[in-house]
Amino acid sequence: MSDETMTIIIDGVEVAAQPGQTILEAADQAGVYIPRLCYHPDLPPGGHCRLCTVKVNGRPASSCTFPASDGLVIENDTEELNAFRRTIVEMLFVEGNHHCPSCEASGDCELQAMAYRLGLLTPTLPYLRQPRQLDASHKDVYIDRDRCILCGRCSRASKVEDGKTVFGFEGRGIHKRIAVDGAKGLSDTDMSVADEAARICPTGCLRVKREGYRVPVGQRTYDHTPIGSDIEHKKATR
Amino acid sequence: MAEDYAKLVNETVEKFGKDRGRLMDIARALHAELGHLSEDTIGLVADALGIHRVEVRDMASFYAFFSREPKGRATIRLCNAVVERMKGADEVAKAFEEAVGCSFGETSEDGKISLEYTPCIGMSDQPPSALVNGVVLTRIRPQDVPGIVAALRKGEGGGRLHEGGYESSEVELNLRQTGPVVFAPMERGAAIRKAVNMTADDVINELNRARVRGRGGAGFPTAMKWDFCRKAEADAHYVVCNGDEGEPGTFKDRVILTEQADLLFEGMTVAGYAIGAQEGFLYLRGEYEYLIGHLQQTLAKRRRLGLLGENICGREGFNFDIRIQLGAGAYVCGEESALIESLEGKRGAPRDRPPFPVQKGYLSRPSSVNNVETLCCAARIIEHGADWFAAMGTKDSTGTKLLSVSGDCERPGVYELEYGITVEKLLELVGADGAQAVQIGGPSGQCLAPKDFGRAISFEDVPTGGSVIVFGPERNLLECMRQFIEFFVDESCGWCAPCRVGTTLLLKQLEKVLEGKGTRADLDQLERLGVTVKTMSRCGLGQTAANPILTTLRNFPDLYDNLIKPGDFIPSFDLKKAIAESCAITGRNPELEEEHV
Fold first, then answer.
1. Which of B54, B62, B500 has its CB closest to that of A167?
2. B350 and B300 in one domain?
3. Residue B222 domain flag
4. Do B199 and B250 share a domain, yes or no?
5. Which secondary structure element, helix H or strand E, spans residue A23, and what is its range?
6. Residue numbers in B near A126 (CB within 8 A)
7. % of chain A surpassing 90 pLDDT
8. DSSP string covering B59-79, please?
9. How far is B363 from chain A (nearest CA, A)?
10. CB atoms within 10 A of CB A101
11. Model ipTM?
12. Which of B87, B90, B93, B294 is most buried per CB count within 10 Å?
């Protein structure tokens, strides 16, 4: 099946897939949206957030890493899976310290937008209120770990897109944090404001300084259309 | 001084061939020498290896046995696994705190001794136990503690401590019942000599006919694993033995490695022949460091006998050798893809599958990761034939199984039994009367109630990697489950959100119920969280971490029902507790309305 187009079935609908594509890539191409946070089209998948978990022939698997192959039967937009996804988004909210009204990413934040899309109104889980470090040492970029969801996008982008290794992880389990390649913080690394990594964070964690309010609230990415609309739009315009 | 220090780092890195893949060994060696891995050390290692500082820190900050802060010259790691606490570990902990003069997680004022807790170290049959700078102490009584601490203070290595490795270790064997497969006398090289006179396909076919399945618990057919690995095209293939048994309550591999290391290496060599590998690895959990001398000697003897090395058993071109890789305290490395990451000198984070290790494993080459016991079975099957093996056990679970039994029973230890034995029969054998529950397969397995004691230990009924923990009638079962969840909180690698956050939330939610602040809605929430973590997590750790709760909700609903209160909601927030400190400072005691208290 080397050059052949394959067919996978997502929620009963046939979707074309090319060899080498993951389920998520094939779905995106066909205008079928699978919720995701840690995935970014320019980067290799990370498999961190698990929001893109679908059922592949009845078994849960992350669609961002699972290769598409002919005849796969996939469940995606089901009440069961969306409830699990909603719970994970809720977990991310209580794990960090997210204050949407005072966060400069509000309206552009994928975590916030995902909560709206999945219908999460208010967390029912207890806040963990963990202490997290802010790193404002760099002249152009800052890290507010309160808002980090450990998606690893910055780390992958720095490696793959920028050819650097500015970011990595540190610690394990609930104490895992994003780390930088310097003994004294971000200013001690070769991070540049021009790096792809500087603008790849889905939340308000890794931000470019002095840009926060360039786009006014009300005109931001998710102010008028839910997250995923751009992908679903492909289907609507066919 | 600073020069000496830089020299030490450089020499250590040189000793391991300046190989980034050996970062685990480099970090272990430097940690042993320096007592901790400081940011300076990490920077020097990164420079010497030509990699980024953040990569070294990523790895060094992951493993429990690596400290980033200075520690005492001796670190006492007291095991606080469930069975150890059932058998007096809390009293021993108190004695240590008194004798050392600091709490767990701290270092004594004179800087000589640090106290740490560690999860199961594979000594549940002889609790309470501890690791002191890698040496195993077992059956510690509170009255032994002052002597141990005094000796460590004097720098003697200490009281009941012995220098060196396995021979002088005080670890008891506790092999209670031997069987025909693993614990039977063996002749070195018998299986290899048979294998090299067969084709690789025939070796795999023999395992296929024996219907042997992976002993780690998941039960994947071994022949299929070897076959996939063999057929995956690559410039190298690897045999990896998973000697990272970390499931609380399991210690069967400890007994195999002590008594039958030769049989294991025999199995690994047969695997090397079958899949076309020239190199094999035994990934040995850091807790079993005390066995390494004995294992290295066994490997050396086998090299001398021509059972490892080049042209093994006279078979032209069959070259195979084995290296032992020590871990550094991480349960998740028992998961095969996390183990491979660790073997490559990285943090033990599992990989997404596919691709599976048989396609892309160690160094992205096809690798067959097998349990210690499975490899022993493989050697015996080649030695005695598939029919001999398949005649034992049940239809879907052939052969014998090693069970590590601990907890409330008269004869804890390792039992080699044919598959199919009922829980009831097993309890009789180990001397456990009136058990209220049995945890089969450790925390990641299931907690069975007496109504299920008629069930059979087998892949088709109650599967297990070997851990069997008996809970007597007096035990607070849900408290034990709480400790199991605590274990998963500590051991979650943190890669994926549902496991990283979900395990902590499960613990909080369970504690709310155990504190009598739960309602029916809290039990529903507990179940909702549990099913989310189970379904959405990336690897086996997360997928099983909720099992202590989910299986007791199913099998012991009364225990939960007795704890919950009527009504819809009880806040977990305690106003009185929250303002207690300010009340004490101001000397005011506001009258709180009853509904707030």
1. B54
2. yes
3. yes
4. yes
5. helix A23-29
6. 505, 508, 572
7. 94
8. HHTT-TT--SS---SEEEEEE
9. 18
10. 5
11. 0.97
12. B93
